[in-house]
Design brief:
single chain, about 300 residues, alpha/beta, TIM Barrel, binds flavin-adenine dinucleotide
């Protein structure tokens, strides 16, 4: 059931902040589709928009080109993802300096997955940053960057247990992380439990819930399996029988995501991070539902 409109108070709605994640496009067609999405979402005045870094730095140039264009052509503040896996310190530092030179002041600092695959054991580059905490120290030494990091409410797939993850998150906070963004989840109680454990460990930075609108259930379920996010049976039930019915699937996806987001806001969450998959429609609809409206200046700019 979608929450009744009176469940969220007006004051809660007016204090919700959003941020959006995009990935760098591979082709001209994908580039156009990304910029259509950016133009549609920019007028919602997100706090920041982040751009991912392909596994092992495979999108280094494309990520840089995308964040630089965001700096040049929009009022939004981009956050560039950066991994330290498989690269020497000098190489990573060069990327950080290039971002600084392009006017980027926010980095999402990550370890990244081994180039041999997500399920392979991780080994740091011999001349590289050894951990994400080291990378954060390096970033902060190079420039006045805001740094966001990952967090895993259902634990990282390679982590022995949740407390180990909390310990890693604490090290990242101690190294200077300003904010964490979670891996996506569908069961909000998992997120609130994680917040409690993090608070008990003395972690006091904002931990933004990462929200994934289910654009395609099969794909999302596969991705969730690799990312260590559980897919509740009720979620599978809701998409059951809709493989060949994209129109109903979209309506169900909007309802499911709205329900999750409204529950988070009802329970006091003020900042939401959306994994857009470079598609604006569902995210725009959810943002509308929670009270965000296009700001005129940004809308005019996007149309120009
Ligand atoms: P960390 O948070 O540093 O560590 C993750 C886990 O690894 C820990 O919880 C722990 O279990 C283990 N670990 C880490 N350090 C140690 C240690 N010293 N000793 C023992 N165990 C340790 N990947 C990309 O390639 N590009 C991206 O742009 C990207 N963006 C992401 C954005 C978000 C919000 C999230 C949640 C993930 C993203 N990822 C991205 C995926 C991420 O790179 C992988 O999950 C990777 O396996 C871990 O990187 P991390 O920074 O999360 O690692």
């Amino acid at each position: 059931m979608i929450a009744k409109p009176d469940r969220i108070s007006r004051s809660a709605l007016s204090s919700v902040n959003v941020s959006f994640e995009f990935f760098p496009p591979k082709t001209q067609e994908m580039e156009e589709s990304l910029w259509d999405s950016i133009s549609r979402l920019a007028p919602l005045s997100p706090n920041f928009v982040s751009v991912t870094y392909g596994a092992g730095g495979s999108t280094r140039e494309r990520t840089h080109a995308t964040v630089s264009r965001i700096v040049r052509e929009t009022r939004m503040k981009p956050a560039a993802h950066l991994t330290c896996v498989g690269a020497a310190r000098g190489e990573v530092n060069e990327v950080i300096r290039d971002y600084h030179g392009a006017g980027v002041r926010h980095i999402v600092a990550l370890r990244g997955d081994p180039p041999t695959g997500i399920d392979q054991p991780y080994a740091p580059h011999p001349q590289g940053y050894q951990t994400t905490a080291d990378l954060i120290t390096g970033i902060k030494a190079i420039g006045d960057f805001e740094v966001s990091v990952s967090a895993y409410p259902e634990k990282h797939p390679q982590s022995p247990n949740l407390l180990h993850d909390i310990e890693i998150l604490k090290r990242k906070v101690d190294a200077g992380a300003d904010r964490a963004i979670t891996q996506f989840f569908f069961d909000n109680s998992v997120y609130f439990r994680f917040l409690d454990v993090a608070a008990a460990a003395g972690i006091n930075i904002p931990i933004l819930p990462g929200i994934v609108p289910v654009q395609n259930f099969k794909q999302t379920a596969n991705f969730a399996r690799r990312a260590g996010s559980s897919v509740p049976a009720w979620l599978a039930d809701r998409f059951d029988g809709l493989d060949d019915d994209p129109v109903t699937r979209r309506l169900v996806a909007a309802a499911v995501c709205a329900e999750q987001v409204i529950d988070l806001i009802d329970r006091g969450v003020t900042d939401l991070h959306f994994y857009t998959m470079n598609k604006a429609d569902l995210v725009f609809a959810i943002c509308h539902l929670i009270g965000l409206r296009p700001q005129m200046a940004e809308a005019a700019e996007a149309a120009a």
